[in-house]
Amino acid sequence: MFQPKGHYVLGLSCVLAVVLGAALPASGQIMSVRHDVHHDISPALRSLPKLPRTHGAAPHEAGRVLPIPLPAGLKPPGQPDSVLQKKPPPGHAALAPSKLAPAATLNFPGLGNGQFGFTIGVAPPDTNGAVGATQYVQWVNASIAVFKKATGALVSGPTAANALWAGFGGGCQTNNAGDGVVVYDKLANRWVISQFSGETTPYLQCVAVSTSSDATGTYFRYSFQYNNFNDYPKMGVWPDAYYVTFNVFNLPSTFLGANACAYNRSAMLTGAAAAQVCFQQPASVGGLLPSDLDGTTPPPGGSPNYLLNFGANSLNLFKFHIDFSNTANSTFTGPTAIGVAAFSPLCGGGTCVPQPGTSQQLDSLADRLMFRLAYRNFGTHESLVVNHSVAAGSSGGIRWYEIQNPAGTPVVTQQSTFAPDSSFRWMGSIAMDHVGDMAVGYTVSNGATVFPSVAYTGRVPTDPPSTMEPEVNLVSGSGSQNGGLTRWGDYSAMQVDPVDDCTFWYTQEFMKTSGSFNWNTQISNFKFANCNSTSPLHVHQLYYSNGWVDQDLTAITNGATPTAGSGLASFPDSYGEHAYFVATNQHVHQLYYSNGWVDQDLTTVTNGALATAGSALASFPDNYGEHAYFVAANQHVHQLYYNRTNWADQDLTANTSGALAIAGSGLASFSDNYGEHAYFVATNQHVHQLYFNHTNWVDQDLTANTHGALAIAGSSLASFSDSYGEHAYFVATNQHIHQLYFNNSSWVDQDLTTITSGALAITGSGLASFPDSYGEHAYFVAANQHVHQLYYNRTNWADQDLTANTNGALAIAGSALASFSDNYGEHAYFVATNQHVHQLYFNHTNWVDQDLTANTHGALAVATSGLTSFADNYGEHAYFVGN
C-alpha cells in the first residue's frame, strides 16, 4: 500500500468517466463506465531483466495501513466465541478427527532474503500466488517469479513487477507500487496479473492478461484510471468479467467506501480495447471481496458475481451483474445480511500480534475479510468459502464460513473459529477442492516460543460439520520482525490446482532470523487422500459412424490413466486402429483395436525409457512396421518401433549423437519413399529432423541449414510429405507460422504469416496439417483464440479465420489441434474454452463448427489435452484426454 508522492500527468489519452446513474437513495452508490487508458502487448516475461529494481536508496516499509471503519455492534472481545473449536478435555470425544490434515508434497522456498539473488526493497511482501497448467506464479509486493509446478524449480525471475509494463508509459511503467494479485483464469488457461499505481497520479490499476497458458510469455497490458486512491485491490475471475474491488481513499486517510468494478474479460483475452463498469459504494461499505471461480464448472448461465464483506455479526452479500453490450443494464444489488456467530475482529482490526523476544507487535488486518472469496459450482449446489481473523479468548484465530445457495436465500452451512491453542493465527486464505475438501493456510505466532510460522489445517466432508482437522506445520519461523515494522503480509494465497482440481497450493511469509527487511516466503502443496482428480483422466475417442459417439477407451480396456498434458498420436493400418498416450507413471501406452480395444504398455514391453510427463507424441505406419516417437526424461527423442514381430525402444538422440529436445517440444513425423522422418525443437530453439535413409538415422539442424527463424520454446510441430516435397510447420519466436519445405533439392524456411499478412499465433498454439487434392493445409490458434487455416491452393498461401467464418467457439488458449481430409471434406479439431471438443468441418461448400461434446453428451477435455485424429473405412476418429 503505497501513498502518492507527487503528481504525474499520464501522456496517453483517457476517456473520462460517464456517470450513468445518480446517487441511489437506497445505497448511495454511483455507477460509472470508463475505457482503458491504454492497452498494448508486452515483451515476453522471460526476456525481462531477472533482478527486481529496488524502491529507493534503502529498503523501506510500504505505506501505512489505511484502515476501514468497523461496523457498530460487534461482539466485545472479552465475550466467548460461540463457534470456537477447542481441544476436548481428556477423556472426552474429539470435536474433529485426530488424524492430521495431509502432509505437504512440495514445500519449497519462494522469493525472499537470500533466495535466487533476490534483494528485499520493501516490507511486507504481500505474499500472493496462483497455480496454472504447468507453472506456479508468485508475487511478493513488487516482484514476480515463475516456478515449475512439477518440481518447484525457478524458471523465470525474479522480475520487477513494473518491468512487465516496460515501454507502456505512465505510472504503470514508472511506479512499482505493489498490492499485487495474480489469479489463473481456469476457463481460458490464462494468467491475470495486476497491481496499482498509487505513488503518482492519476491513480491507476495496471492489469496484464497472458496471451497463453505460459506465464513466461507475452501479456496483453491495460491501465484503468480512478478519481481517488484505489487501495487494496482484489480480483476474482468470472465467466463474463474480471471483477475487482478496492477500498477507496481521499488521501491522506479519508475512507470513501469500496469500489466494485468489472473489466471486460472477453476483450482482454484478445488484447482489444476494454471497458470497466464500476459501482462506487458509500463509506458505510468497505472491505468487499469478489468471488473467484474454482474448478471448470461455471456458475449457472447469467449468474452475477457474488461479493461479500462483514457487518455486525453478519456477512453482507452483494450481486454484481454486468452487461457490456448495454452497460446501462448493469446492476449492483444488496446487501443481503447473512447472520453468523458473533465475533470480535482480532486486535480490533489493528496491531496486537505478539512475537518471541521483542515487544514489536504485528498488524492483524482484521478489519476486512481475507483474500480469496472462493466460489465453486458442485452441480448440486453452489458454495462460497471465506475467512477472517478474530479474537479467540486471549489469542487469535481463523473464523471461516461455507455459504451455500448464494443465488437464492444464502445459507451458512458451516462456520467455526480455528484456534486450537494460545498462539495467534491470522492472515488466512481458504479454498475447496472438487469433492468438498477444504483447506485454510495462515501465519501462527505467540510471544513465547513460536516465531511467525506458516501452517494450515483442513477438513474432508466426512469430518464433523464446522470442524477442522489438527494443524500441519509447513515451515517454522526462527526469527521475529523488529525495527519498528508492524506490517505482516496483507494477505496470503490458497489456490486449487486447475489440472487435477484436488491439489491445494499455499504461499505465505515467515522469518528465518530476527530483523527487518529480511523476510522469506514458502510455497507448498498438498492433497487429501479422498480426492481423486476430476479425472481419473481417461483417453476418449470421438467416433463418427452414422452419428458421433464418445467412447471411453480407458474404461473399455480397464487401462492406464493418462497424464493430464499427455500428447496423443494415432493412425489406422491394415492391422487395426492405434492411439498412443503417456500414462501417469510416464510409460508410453498404445490403445489398439482389433476385434476389441486393448491397452498395451510399450515401455514395459520394451524395457524402454520413461517419457516426460507431458511429452508430445507422433506416429505413423509404413511397410517396415509401426512407429511412435516421444521425448524421454533426459530430453532424448526415442522411437518405439514394431517390426511386425516385436516392439523395440530406440534412442535416436544417442544413435545420431544429436541435439537434445527442449522440454515441452512438439513432435511430428511421417514416412515417404525417401525414408522416415521425425521433427523436434532442440534446446537452442532450432528445428531438427531425425531422418532414416533406409540405412542410418541422421540428425539434421534445419534451422541452421536454412538460416531460418528460431522456434518458440516448446512450439508444437506438424508435418507431412506430398508429391511437392516434405513439409514441417512451427511457431517462431515472433509468433509467426513458418514452414520448413524441402523442394527435392534443399530446405527452405518460409514465413507464412508474413506471406499471407496473417494473424499471429497464440503462444502455446497447437499445430496440425495435411495435404489433399485441393492443396496444403495448416491449422493454428491465433492470439484472439480463433482457429485459423493457412491454405496453399498450389498458387498462393492464404490465411482463413475459420472461427470468424463459422461464428464458432473460441479455442482454449494453447489448445492442441488435429486434422485430416477424407471424401466427406476437411476436418480440424480443437478444445473450446468450455473444454468441449469441436470439429471445424468443410463440406466442400462451407465451413461449419460442430460441438462434438454437446452432440455426444460426452466428457470434457482437460485444458492441456493433446488431440489426434484420422479417417478410415470405419469412420472418422478423434482422440482426447478427458474426465
List the keywords:
883 residues; 66 strands; elongated; 5% helix; mainly beta; 9 helices; six-stranded antiparallel sheet; nine-stranded mixed sheet
Short summary of the structure?
The protein is mainly β. The protein has nine helices and 66 strands.
3D architecture notes:
The protein is mainly beta and 883 residues long. Helices cover 5% and strands 46% of the residues. The protein contains nine helices and 66 strands. The strands form 16 sheets. The chain has a nine-stranded mixed sheet, with no helix packed on it. A hairpin with a 7-residue loop joins β33 (438-445) and β34. The chain is elongated, with a radius of gyration of 28 Å. The relative contact order is 0.09.
Structural class based on helices, strands and sheet pairing: mainly beta
Q: How would the global form be characterised?
A: elongated
Strand order of the largest sheet: 6-31-30-29-28-22-23-24-25
* Distance between the amino and carboxyl termini: 43 Å
Q: Which segments are poorly predicted (pLDDT under 50) over 5 or more consecutive residues?
A: 1-26, 52-57
Total number of strands: 66
**SS summary, helix count:** 9
Question: How large is the radius of gyration?
Answer: 28 Å
Look at the structure and give the mean pLDDT.
Answer: 91
| Percent in strands | over 45%
Percentage of helical residues?
under 10%
Major sheet characteristics: 9 strands, mixed
